[in-house]
Amino acid sequence: MAEQRLAMRTQFPASAESLKPRLKKAPEFPILEKQNWLIHLHYIRKDYEACKDVIKEQLQETQGLCEYAIYVQALIFRLEGNIQESLELFQTCAVLSPQSADNLKQVARSLFLLGKHKAATEVYNEAAKLNQKDWEICHNLGVCYIYLKQLDKAQDQLHNALHLNRHDLTYIMLGKIHLLEGDLDKAIEIYKKAVEFSPENTELLTTLGLLYLQLGIYQKAFEHLGNALTYDPTNYKAILAAGSMMQTHGDFDVALTKYRIVACAVPESPPLWNNIGMCFFGKKKYVAAISCLKRANYLAPFDWKILYNLGLVHLTMQQYASAFHFLSAAINFQPKMGELYMLLAVALTNLEDTENARRAYTEAVRLDKCNPLVNLNYAVLLYNQGEERGALAQYQEMEKKVNLLKDSSSLEFDPEMVEMAQKLGAALQVGEALVWTKPVKDPKSKQRTTSTGKAASFQQPLGSNQALGQAMSSAAAYRKLPSGVGGTSQLTKPASLPLEPEPTVEAQPTEASAQIREK
């Protein structure tokens, strides 16, 4: 009894709260980022279909408010080539997170890929306000300014990028700006700094070697091209350049061996087939030369240098109508080159269209201020037409150009060109005033017209490599070997942005340094 009473005393009254009904648990709101890890995992594994399925599920749960899912969806669209759709999605990300510089960078990137470079620069400038220490923004602004032809602003931005963080691609773009401006010395200085920073970058080594090649500094050119091939024996640009150097020295068989290696890597390269064609031209295999050059022309129908070489080979084979066709096409693409008009005049002379030949020579003389062969050819034509006064004027103009070339550098003129000038001078009775040193053996003037390929010292197109050490092209007979053939690299096209760079432009052919005389 006592225990029961004690138990009754120790019992506590029931709580009032326990008598109330229990409330339901608060609803759980969806977590916007709960599947971001899975989206990221599929994306880096390049399993884009599974990634898109997860993104779709995530966006349905979050009612389209998951920024990361939208961001990755935009990246996938860009990889698939749907640039406009990616732009719209990146703009959505920028609305969801307006203080994110990364979202603005991606918006600008999509605008850049759509060719809207001015709009891209505006967005990049907005991103720069949010993050002033991002080298990538400065670099990309520089690339956009290159496409807008604002090279001074491009240089400033690229220098800012290098100040923030040094990268190979920034050096490459800065060097290409100097190439666009035609300043090879500054371009070489930039590439030398780049090689010091990244000595194993084969693209930098190859480019620097090609620039030294253009300036005639052959020892350094061989050194850098050799280093490039040491790090990457399959670097087709360096092999193509080395083959071109051998080709200019007349080692056509060795050059063809090098080109065989390049053909395995890039069988559809127009410069490759151009140079192979000119190797066959040097070996007097004209049909094979035309076959290779026409393949190069098929791969690059708007390359005036290939058309130039085709015209040259057809002139050699005395196929003047075909030569006229290709030279006319080359002039349409390169209307400011006097030498093309001169070769066209040679073809027209052989087609017995003297009136148009004279017009072509007149245009060649107007455009070409350095090559004395233009005036010599024109003087021969005028003399053959009985216009000795006009021939004498052209002959005197030729002498002025020769004197200027002799004063500026120690040039060696082609013996056959010297012989032709001496004969013409004797026929015009100006033998005492000749600047040539070779004695005259035959004072009789024959009906000839000299024509030439490219001279190494003048008319050099941007970024191309001319025949090594050749000061002036000559006027040789139809079946004489050319003194050299040239063709290697073009470096002018700007690369893309650092995250997704475009492929660089491959080596471009140069016009052949070959010689022709019309009988």
From TrEMBL:
Segments for region (Disordered): 439-462, 481-519
GO cellular component: BBSome; centriolar satellite; ciliary basal body; ciliary membrane; ciliary transition zone; motile cilium; non-motile cilium
Protein location: Cell projection, Cilium membrane; Cell projection, Cilium, Flagellum; Cytoplasm, Cytoskeleton, Microtubule organizing center, Centrosome, Centriolar satellite
Keyword match Cytoplasm: yes
Keywords on record: Cell membrane, Cell projection, Cilium, Cilium biogenesis/degradation, Cytoplasm, Cytoskeleton, Flagellum, Membrane, Protein transport, Repeat, TPR repeat, Transport
Record has Cell division as a keyword: no
SMART domains linked to this entry: TPR (SM00028)
First and last residues of every TPR repeat: 168-201, 202-235, 304-337, 338-371
Biased composition (Polar residues): 448-462
Positions of the Tetratricopeptide repeat protein 21A/21B second ARM domain: 65-158
Domain of life the protein comes from: Eukaryota
Gene Ontology BP, a term: microtubule cytoskeleton organization
Family: Belongs to the BBS4 family.
Protein name, per record: BBSome complex member BBS4
Gene: BBS4
